[in-house]
Amino acid sequence: MRDVETLRTDRFTLRPLRREDTAALYPTFANEVQCLYLSRQAFTSEEELWGWLAEPDWNGRTWIAEDAEGRVAGRFVAVPAHEDGIEEIGYVTCMDRQGGGVARECTAALVDHLFASGLRKLTAEVDTENTPSIRLLERLGFTREALFREHETTHAGLRDVAVYGLLASERA
């Protein structure tokens, strides 16, 4: 796992992952409905979740969104893609904070940060039935670039996946 810089929005601080974040994230990552669009099934213990979150060989970066009271609101990630200058983003908002603009505010800050760091393109893969995630990406200016039918077999079965992209030149 790579180091991350702390980012700030009007309501949140996006900071590096800590071991104690597992307890706050676990209710969401242990819920089958919340994990429907993950590539794996819900977690069965905090220890299992921590092992996944802190996987030492994972080459991505994790930011934890925390509000002014220190409550965890979600997890946001960036992972290097197939070539330099491109990274894939991902996000999960804690289920007790969904609908309050956490994902939009924090993902927008992450997008701005990643482009300011010199990236030329961001991508996101999303299950085609994950309407809230698709709406978020489109509101942030992402465009659907590809549709892969029956592309991925997950705990939810065979899934269609859409790839969304955003160029730095489009964000400006």
TrEMBL record:
The keyword Aminoacyl-tRNA synthetase does not apply. It comes from the Bacteria. Keywords: Transferase. Residues 12-170 form the N-acetyltransferase domain. GO terms for cellular component: cytoplasm. The keyword rRNA-binding does not apply. Pfam families: Acetyltransf_3 (PF13302). GO terms for molecular function: protein N-terminal-serine acetyltransferase activity; protein-N-terminal-alanine acetyltransferase activity. This is Protein N-acetyltransferase, RimJ/RimL family. It comes from Qipengyuania nanhaisediminis.
